[in-house]
Amino acid sequence: MFENLSERLSGVFDRLTKQGALSPEDVKSALREVRVALLEADVSLEVARDFIKAVEKKATGASVTKSVTPGQQVVKIVHDELVGVLTGDEDPGRLKIDNPPAPILMVGLQGSGKTTTTAKLAKRLKEREGKKVLMASLDTNRPAAMEQLAILGAQIGVDTLPIVKGEDAIAIAKRAKTQASFGGYDVYMLDTAGRLHIDAELIAQAAAVRDVANPRETLLVVDGLTGQDAVNVAEEFDDKIGVSGVVLTRMDGDGRGGAALSMRAVTGKPIRFVGLGEKMDAIEEFHAERIAGRILG
Ligand code: GDP
Q1: Distance 253 CA to ligand 1 centre (A)
Q2: What is the pLDDT of residues 114-172, one digit of tens each?
Q3: With a 6 A CB cut-off, is 120 part of the ligand 1 pocket?
Q4: How does it sit in the membrane (predicted)?
Q5: What is the distance between the alpha carbons of residues 166 and 140, in angstroms, rounded to a whole number?
Q6: Ligand 1: does its nearest atom lie under 6 Å from the Cβ of 276?
Q7: pTM
Q8: How far apart are CA 51 and CA 35, in angstroms?
Q9: Which three-class secondary structure string do you get for 77-89?
């Protein structure tokens, strides 16, 4: 399906005379290939353009070392630049959960993988850090979503706040806080309501919950396969709610990871975790190198 970028670039350079330094023309033809690779990886046009400019600066006049071909050299420059842009947090997997009980707010659109990610992170906190975690669903419009969190909780051995019919999201958030304080929990996770699209009510509710809970982390869950849409969603949520990090789900899918680059370049928010499947262990902290490799193909 995709041609590997290194192969493409060696194709370009095979047609050129070998010189000791990368001439501007060499770099230009190489960058055309890089651009195609980025766009195929679903990086937005604007981000691809800025990225190419930055690489062009670094690559023009860079001397070609004997051990590598000009193509490999450009690939390395592109790779390093990708890693530079993608890196947003030195320790993305470390959640700020001191001062128990620490609230973590989970936000995102319906279907993004928010509930699944809430449970995956709870399991991680329990198993890796020995934390006592409480999860609460605030999705009062969708009883099935509340049930889903309870089922996942039972499966992974993490407590969920009992469901009380007729309660609104704010009341649930307050009850979660009380239960977490009196129950000796280290962390409580609030799984907010999701909608198919961002609307005023969704944002207003998430903001109201944020004000009640005063979260240490607000994690936005977005579907990594939705490319530019994911970036628009992140901008909007960050603008209205303020997010401390992004979780990209479905990175086990066919996508090339371009959403990650656009996400970083446009929102500046660190990507903290990536979801790699439906199973409760299918999550890992974000590694810039891995995504860079995937974008380059
Ligand atoms: P929510 O509406 O945002 O809470 O989404 P859910 O957590 O219910 O997830 C929707 C669907 O996506 C479920 O079938 C999940 O198992 C699936 N899902 C969530 N995260 C991932 C992921 O990283 N990879 C894959 N392949 N599926 C995922």
Answers
A1: 12
A2: 999 999 999 999 999 999 999 999 999 899 999 999 999 999 999 999 999 999 999 99
A3: no
A4: Peripheral membrane protein
A5: 8
A6: yes
A7: 0.93
A8: 9
A9: HHHHHHHHHHCCC
